[in-house]
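Researcher: I'm preparing a figure for a lab meeting and need a structural model of a single chain. I don't have an experimental structure, so a prediction will have to do for now. The sequence is pasted below. Please return the structure as tokens so I can convert it later.
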Amino acid sequence: MTIKPMERNTLVLLFLIALLCIPGALISQERTYHGDPDKSFQIARTLAFDGSRSEARDTLNQILSAYPAYTDVRNLLAKTYSWDGNFGEARRHFNRITSVERENKEVWIATIKNEIYAENLATALGLTNKALLYLKNDADLLELRSTIKEGILKLQEAPLVAEKEKASEDK
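Model: Understood. Here is the structure written out token by token.
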């Protein structure tokens, strides 16, 4: 098969155009955040509370790409994951905050509640105790710890109650 000079020139031209377009397409794929992070956060917050959590997460992740230490943004992002039952992803973001900002009560409470929702009461209790090391005698944390302890106690008593009920049915 022989390629005619005209066809060869056309192929070369198409190849060169493709080479020139590929880097531009790759660069345009990068998403760099250039907006006002506070305004974007408010929009994402409204989206999240209106139930559009996926769209909110997109905005929050864009903000974090430029401002990774923006705690309120990361906290809301973690909460949206928790609300959607993705407790592991929420945990990852909460841990990132609490490892740096140890006296942020709002984040500690959200972190603890994430573990309660995930039915990890022992972890929730441990986190509450850890939070109380930094926020000594905080009334909200003390109340939360009491509620968690009650939940753990009920879980421990449940098999005993079931066993007693079974024994009374057998009589």
